[in-house]
Amino acid sequence: MTARASLLLPSGVCYDLHSLRVGATTPAMFHPARDFEGLIAKGSPEEQLLAQIDFERLPRHIAIIMDGNGRWAGMRSLPRVAGHRAGIAAVRDVVEASARLGCQVLTLYAFSVENWKRPRREVDTLMGLLREYLKKELDTLQTNNIAFNVIGRMDELSPTIQRELQEGMEATRGNTGLLFNIALSYGGRAEIVDAVNRILAERPASGSPRAPVDEAAFSRYLYTAGQPDPDLLIRTSGELRISNFLLWQIAYAEIWVTETLWPDFRKRELLQAIVDYQKRERRYGRVAGSEPEPVGLSPGKVTV
What we know:
Layout: H1 32-35, H2 45-52, E1 61-65, H3 69-75, H4 80-101, E2 105-112, H5 120-143, E3 147-151, H6 159-172, E4 179-186, H7 188-202, H8 215-219, E5 232-235, E6 254-257, H9 267-279, E7 295-296, E8 302-303
Parallel strand pairs: 1-2, 1-5, 2-4, 3-4, 5-6
Antiparallel strand pairs: 7-8
């Protein structure tokens, strides 16, 4: 894949006002057959879908609500945790496929602020699977030039998990391919509240006039500062809701819902979502057929 400047922030926090990466563009993938060698079988449905994709119009940022693990397990008379474990294979497949496609950012919704209400055993299992994934997949992330990043309230995680996440981010920080965000202890409303509190904390307490906060300035305080907003939001398991995920960033995202449960989701579904996405006309408030305008990155910058 073509090298590009990394969007990953150099600091250890989820956002950094002084280290934004803006203006990066999705690289064209000139040899899809070569880049997918060993990942897609000849003559398979995946190969047929791949042939339909315009690599000049890939979604820059794909966000996925991974839903259906519990239902998948229940259909097989297995405990819920078995569904979470089965979902790891889907994560592995989708992350690697997104990297080889040449996508710029992939964000997976792994654990919400509301998920802390689940039974302790289930929460512990989820955190254990996260640690297991990092240990087993770090080499794969490096091989595929993937930068690993965490968005959410990391301070709510255990010190051990925080340390291992930081180690994973540091180990892949120099990679310039796909930026893989994993949302942990994340909530869209919580993110907006955190942004507001950071703005308030940085503003002087004096009675001097203060400049108004516009959308561009506000976006610089989000966990995803410096990253393009999602172009495509995927939800598995057929549910028609966004579940408090990237509420600010998905304002103009195209939404694609599949009945497929997350443990069964693979590159075929990902490719189908991209094919369907490219068939849609994105208007951004314009009338049909008018010339598209530049789309803003989250800090308010624009690309063509």
